[in-house]
Amino acid sequence: MYRISDALKLIEKANKVIFIGTSFKVNITAVALNIAKRNNALIEVIDPEPFDLGINGVNYRKITVEEYLDGIK
Predict the structure, then answer these.
(1) 43 with 37: CB under 8 angstroms?
(2) How open is the CA angle 23-7-48, to the nearest 5 degrees?
(3) What residue ranges in 1-73 does DSSP mark as E strands?
(4) Residue-wise burial string across 54-69, b where 16 or more C-beta atoms lie within 10 A, e elsewhere
(5) For residues 37, 41, 46 and 52, what is the CA-based torsion angle, rounded to 10 degrees?
(6) What is the pLDDT of residues 28-59, one digit of tens each?
(7) Cβ atoms within 10 Å, residue 19
């Protein structure tokens, strides 16, 4: 129904995973984070008040999703 298995297959192949506005308390988000760490993918967190993951190399961008999207146009 939610196509979680499809999402996990894509995350497994990703060399960069971007998390937008999450507390990392939802199961699929935590699983995605673990896969990204295991695969040494670049991890980017977009949030005006990001949760510190305590992981070296995470790129925290303290901005709103609107600001992020404006920057990639």
Answers:
(1) yes
(2) 25
(3) 16-20, 42-46, 59-61
(4) eeeebeebeeeeeebe
(5) 30
(6) 999 999 999 999 999 999 999 998 999 999 99
(7) 20
Look-up of token digits 């988000």? 29
Q: What is the pTM of this model?
A: 0.86
Place of tokens 């939802």: 26
What is the Cα–Cα distance from 8 to 50, expressed in whole angstroms? Answer: 23
Q: How far apart are CA 62 and CA 66, in angstroms?
A: 12
Q: Compute the mean pLDDT over every residue in the chain, rounded to the nearest whole number.
A: 92
Question: What is the model's pLDDT at position 71?
Answer: 87
